[in-house]
Write a structure and sequence with these properties.
This protein is an alpha+beta fold. The protein has one domain: 3-Layer(aba) Sandwich (Glutaredoxin), CATH 3.40.30. The chain has helices at about 40-60, 70-80, 95, 140-150, and strands spanning about 10, 15-20, 25-30, 60-65, 85-90, 100-105, 110-115, 115-120, 125-130. The strands form 2 sheets. Strands 2-1-5-4-3-8-9 form a 7-stranded mixed β-sheet, with helices on one face. It has a two-stranded antiparallel sheet with strand order 6-7. The relative contact order is 0.23.
């Protein structure tokens, strides 16, 4: 099993977070392209709405990462009442470490950006499951189901 790359980033409130902060717990770490865009808002709101289930039923934390600034994350979090941590990775070093910085296409134009990927990290820091290029609509429900299966195993 592959170990999750470490991170040390600021959240929407300017507080530092690193992988070790989640040691001994399950962590749902998701990467998304941009605050306040339609798909990213849908995904963030689905994690917001499922957070109680993810925490209570699966004893896991949710953390989102994009290259947006701390200030942008704060506005996004406040506007949509997000109840979980958003980390700012403006240099996209952590995004790259999780192989989520990829060539993307939008309206026929190719550019480098963050692919919508999610990783379930176990209490031991190992990556137990990864989802590449996820559909933001029903993703949180799939995460809950998979977390339960992983914990039962």
């Amino acid at each position: 099993m592959k170990q999750a790359p470490n991170f040390n980033l600021l959240d929407q409130n300017g507080t530092k977070h690193e992988l070790a902060d989640y040691s001994g717990k399950w962590l749902v770490l998701y990467f998304y392209p941009k605050d306040s865009t339609p798909g990213c808002t849908k995904e963030a709101c689905s994690f917001r709405d499922a957070r109680a289930d993810i925490e209570q039923e699966a004893n896991a934390s949710v953390v989102g990462i994009s290259k947006d600034s701390v200030e942008s994350h704060k506005k996004f979090s406040d506007k949509y009442h997000l109840n979980f941590t958003l980390l700012s990775d403006p240099e996209h070093q952590v995004i790259e470490a999780y192989e989520s910085w990829k060539p993307l296409k939008f309206m026929g134009k190719e550019y480098m950006g963050t692919q919508r990927n999610t990783f379930i990290i176990g209490p031991d820091g190992g990556i137990y499951k990864q989802y590449i290029g996820v559909d933001p609509k029903d993703h949180a429900n799939q995460i809950i189901k998979d977390l339960k299966q992983l914990q039962a195993a």
